[in-house]
Amino acid sequence: AITFGRFDVLAVMASYGVFLALWAIAGARHGLGAAFGAGIAVAAAQATWHWRLIRARTRDGCFKAFRLNHWLGFAVFAGIAAGYALR
After folding, report:
1. Residue 1 has what pLDDT?
2. Mean of the pLDDT values across residues 67-75?
3. Residue 49 has what DSSP assignment?
4. How far apart are CA 65 and CA 18, in angstroms?
């Protein structure tokens, strides 16, 4: 947040976007299918929720998004695991 100053929310959301886009491309190239797509969709929904938490830059909202960020990664992981399991 200190590095990006007033562009901190934009930087966080851009990072989420790049992260999800790269995983979506990788999953498509490996043919992981709809289960993987569902995991990416859930992760995108969580990123949107995190944006709602951090957009006002409140201490509590930012800390909650930070604390719960691991679920976004878990959604991607679950999509990958399901994609391979259902091949």
Report:
1. 72
2. 98
3. H
4. 18
The pTM (predicted TM-score) of the whole model is 0.93
Q: How would you label 39-73 residue by residue, b for 16+ Cβ within 10 Å and e otherwise?
A: bbebbbebbeebeebbeeeeeeebeebeeeeeebe
Which helix (H) or strand (E) element contains residue 58?
none
Q: Quote the tokens at residue 77.
A: 């992981």
Question: Cα–Cα distance between 30 and 43 in angstroms, integer?
Answer: 19
Judged against a pLDDT cut of 90, whether residue 11 lies above it is answered with yes
Q: Where are the domains of the chain?
A: 5-85
Query: CA 77 to CA 87: how far, in whole Å?
Result: 16
Give 38's contacts (C-beta < 8 A, 6+ positions apart). Answer: 79, 82
Helix 70-85, helix 8-29: angle, nearest 10: 10
